[in-house]
């Protein structure tokens, strides 16, 4: 039952917001009593923490699945972006923005965990792109990782609308890729950008 509650709460939090969803809403949606929820979670904050942990796990399992498909480095980034878009398509307000505004302590824990994971994914992608000839050799990988995650996290922290956040994230991905790309990489990037506009 605990897993079911976390799963339903995660779905509702992402769809309607961490602040607006109450324990009553979750209980009503699951056709269980609020008492049942409190049996597993002493308060809403604990449930939010567990929910964000579950979402984090799902996101990184999906990213690992995409990485295992052996796309080229640029295509891989577009596939990861598509996965995020699908996952958060029901959200009107950026979940990261809501979390930072209403539950800053939980947000700090989430961001620390995300930055560590993202650094690893970005590093792997850049190294792969250099090997494949899509990114230039001799770039400062650590700097590029830092630039990119700083831009991405700043977009999500400060942009209320999820739709607007996704638009800015695409622009950040293009900016990031162009800064590292070889001519071969630019051609590949242009192909993916064109496909998005079809």
Automatic annotation (TrEMBL):
InterPro entries per UniProt: Homeodomain-like_sf, HTH-type_Tx_Regulator, HTH_TetR
Protein name: TetR/AcrR family transcriptional regulator
Keywords: DNA-binding
Name of one Pfam family that matches: TetR_N
Residue spans binding DNA: 22-41
Domain HTH tetR-type: 1-59
PROSITE patterns per UniProt: HTH_TETR_2 (PS50977)
PANTHER family to which the protein is assigned, alphabetical: ACREF/ENVCD OPERON REPRESSOR-RELATED, ACREF_ENVCD OPERON REPRESSOR-RELATED
Keyword Secreted part of the UniProt annotation: no
DNA-binding in keyword set: yes
SUPFAM superfamilies the record matches: Homeodomain-like
């Amino acid at each position: 039952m605990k897993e079911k509650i976390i799963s339903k709460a995660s779905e509702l939090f992402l769809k309607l917001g961490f602040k607006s969803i109450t324990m009553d809403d979750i209980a009503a949606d699951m056709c269980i009593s609020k008492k049942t929820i409190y049996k597993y979670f002493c308060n809403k904050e604990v449930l939010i923490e567990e929910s964000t942990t579950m979402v984090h796990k799902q996101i990184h399992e999906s990213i690992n699945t995409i990485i295992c498909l052996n796309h080229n480095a640029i295509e891989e980034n577009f596939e990861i972006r598509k996965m995020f878009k699908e996952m958060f398509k029901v959200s009107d307000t950026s979940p990261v923005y809501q979390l930072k505004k209403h539950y800053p302590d939980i947000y700090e824990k989430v961001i620390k965990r995300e930055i560590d994971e993202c650094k690893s994914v970005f590093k792997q992608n850049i190294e792969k792109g250099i090997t494949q000839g899509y990114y230039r050799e001799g770039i400062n990988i650590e700097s590029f990782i830092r630039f990119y995650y700083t831009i991405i996290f700043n977009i999500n922290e400060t942009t209320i609308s999820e739709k607007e956040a996704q638009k800015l994230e695409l622009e950040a991905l293009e900016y990031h890729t162009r800064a590292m790309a070889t001519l071969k990489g630019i051609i590949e990037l242009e192909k993916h950008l064109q496909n998005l506009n079809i």
